[in-house]
Design a protein that fits this description.
Radius of gyration: 21 Å
CATH topology: Growth Hormone, Chain: A
Number of helices: 16
CATH superfamily: MFS general substrate transporter like domains
CATH architecture: Up-down Bundle
Strand content: under 5%
CATH class: Mainly Alpha
Number of strands: 0
Distance between the termini: 26 Å
Length: 416
């Protein structure tokens, strides 16, 4: 990070105060904050999937209504992304990220209150909070790590998926050891609280350590050209739609993978373990693919790789869901993790500067998550109407084909 401004150095004084200020500004502290915030980006979503049957039994929910437990937060990932860029410009990315972590903790706790309305209302808060984290993180990384944007994207996407992995694996055991699904879901509010505490130094740095609000991060430097209108850019739409389609196939799995297995005779605990394994394998793809993408002028081979893996995994779920469960989970995991890492990296690589990255991130995640929100709901409705998982999976294979076509366009060596 940049050196402390002279006015801040003067007000910070010398000796111990100056040392504390230098510590707050240390890049390692920023890295810790990014990693802990990233651990929360999917955890509150992944914690629900292994417990959907318990939630449905508690409140008497149909398949379509059960799908709303995951669809509502994803819908608000998109709606929250609409306001995230404005909030970042108005109040500064650091403060908005801190507030988002606090909101996330509150949303998790609201979700376990004893009513179906609270379950969905908490999902609204959870989705909105994660949207703010999702949208502002790429711009912050582009700003503070301009020469290491791809590698830092690799770190935070890897941490994001690692958080989901731990949560997915622990949800059912926690339900049993803590006495119910409410405690199993609620415990993850502690993870959000720890991340907020770790992010607090960045809020203090943004305020300049003086008690006065610092100048918020501007969308465009004073000497920059007129801001790019990403909504009128064909390349921006290609990145956006690839982001949305890969999110759609991922959230269908987050919502329904354990249920697909249990509907074919697998035990709930085994289905939860395989779901956690799927999330664990995603870490490899999410970490490796952005690193590879940053070293390539164009990322078309990676687009082909990740979409083919996802399509192959879904096809396996359609023809032999239980017999090949571990294999399909692994294939899907590498493809899913690689796809989300690549989508987020494309936002950074296709942007000419941090301001454009923030705008493109807001656009891609607004449209992308609104599109993705339809996935779990549509899959649940198709399954309820047909009594089979074959039609929903076949529809997702069509999504993979569309993502391949759009991704090949988005992966060209150009900037918005």
């Amino acid at each position: 990070m940049d050196a402390a401004p002279p006015v801040v150095e003067a007000e910070a004084g010398t000796g111990g105060a100056a040392s504390r200020w230098a510590l707050l500004r240390h890049p390692a502290l920023l890295l810790v904050g990014i990693v802990l915030a990233s651990l929360n980006m999917r955890a509150a979503l992944a914690s629900v999937s292994p417990l959907v049957s318990e939630l449905a039994e508690t409140y008497g929910l149909s398949s379509a209504a059960s799908s709303l437990v995951t669809s509502v937060p994803v819908l608000f990932l998109g709606l929250g992304a609409l306001v995230a860029p404005w909030l970042g410009r108005r109040f500064g990315a650091e403060r908005v990220l801190f507030a988002a972590l606090l909101l996330l903790g509150v949303g998790i706790l609201v979700r376990i209150l004893p009513s179906a309305a609270a379950l969905y209302g908490g999902g609204v808060l959870v989705g909105t909070a994660i949207a703010l984290l999702n949208v502002l993180m790429p711009g912050l990384i582009k700003r503070d790590f301009p020469d290491r944007a791809a590698s830092m994207t690799s770190v935070y996407t890897g941490a994001m998926i690692a958080g989901a992995t731990v949560v997915a694996a622990a949800s059912v055991p926690l339900e049993r050891s803590l006495g119910g699904w409410q405690a199993s879901l609620g415990v993850w509010s502690l993870l959000a609280a720890v991340a907020a505490l770790a992010w607090l130094p960045q809020v203090l740095v943004a305020r300049g350590g003086t008690g006065r609000a610092a100048e918020p991060v501007r969308a465009v430097p004073a000497d920059a050209a007129r801001p790019v209108n990403v909504w009128r850019s064909a390349l921006a739409w290609q990145v956006t739609l690839f982001m949305g389609l890969q999110s759609l196939w991922s959230y269908v799995l987050i919502a329904w993978m354990p249920t697909i297995f249990t509907d074919h005779g697998m035990s709930r605990s085994t289905a939860g373990v395989i779901f956690a394994f799927n999330n664990l394998i995603q870490v490899a793809g999410a970490f490796a693919v952005p690193l590879l993408a940053g070293r390539m002028r164009g990322q078309r081979p990676l687009i082909v790789l990740v979409t083919t893996l996802v399509a192959a995994g879904y096809a396996g779920l359609m023809v032999a869901p239980v017999q090949g469960a571990w294999l399909w989970s692994a294939v899907l995991g590498v493809g899913q993790g690689g796809a989300v890492g690549l989508a987020l990296t494309l936002i950074v690589l296709r942007s000419g500067d941090a301001a454009t990255a923030a705008r493109l991130s807001g656009m891609a995640q607004t449209v992308g998550y609104l599109l993705a929100a339809a996935g779990p709901l549509a899959a649940g409705a198709l399954h309820q109407a047909t009594g089979s998982w074959t039609p929903p999976i076949a529809a997702v294979l069509g999504v993979c084909a569309a993502a391949l076509a759009l991704g090949l366009l988005a992966a060209r060596n150009r900037t918005v």
